[in-house]
Amino acid sequence: MITASAATVIAAPPCKIWEMISDPEQWDRWMVMHGEWPDGPPAGLEKGTQFRQRLGHLGIYDTVTVKIVENDLHHLLVLFGQGNYGADARFTFQLDPETPDSTRVTTTVEILGKLVRPLSSLVKFGLQKNLRRTISEFSVQWGKRTA
Q1: Topology (CATH) of 2-146
Q2: Helix/strand/coil (H, E, C) string of 6-70?
């Protein structure tokens, strides 16, 4: 398994930040690995919801079948993606209150499957870079939304 994560603190309560995380139509604005929705974005993100999402990493794009495995309102969203190249991924978005008006936003990706071992150092470096960009873009988009 390869794991990478990134975090930032945003000056807003979790319920406000959750609005942006739980809106798939906004993902293309901040989720760096998101490519497109082959069948359109999902209507909701309830536990058990499945959809297809085109994701890219290290110049490799794959249409992934994604399932929502956990949705703890205003706190935790966990997606599990199964791709076509022998690697599965678990994406986690976690919101933790720092103060009543600020929230730590953490995103984590775990790569599982047979491709992990031969490409682990390259994949981990790229994932870490993409997650830092994702969390940075999320912060930028949040700032535009509140400006």
Answers
A1: Alpha-D-Glucose-1,6-Bisphosphate; Chain A, domain 4 (3.30.530)
A2: EEEEECCCHHHHHHHHCCHHHHHHHCCCEEECCCCCCCCCCCCCEEEEEEEECCEEEEEEEEEEE
Report the alpha-carbon distance of residue 106 to residue 108 in Å, rounded: 7
The residues near 26 (Cβ < 8 Å, ≥ 6 apart) are 20, 141
- The pLDDT-based confidence of 111 (bands split at 50, 70, 90) is confident
- pTM of this prediction? 0.83
Coil, strand or helix at 73: coil
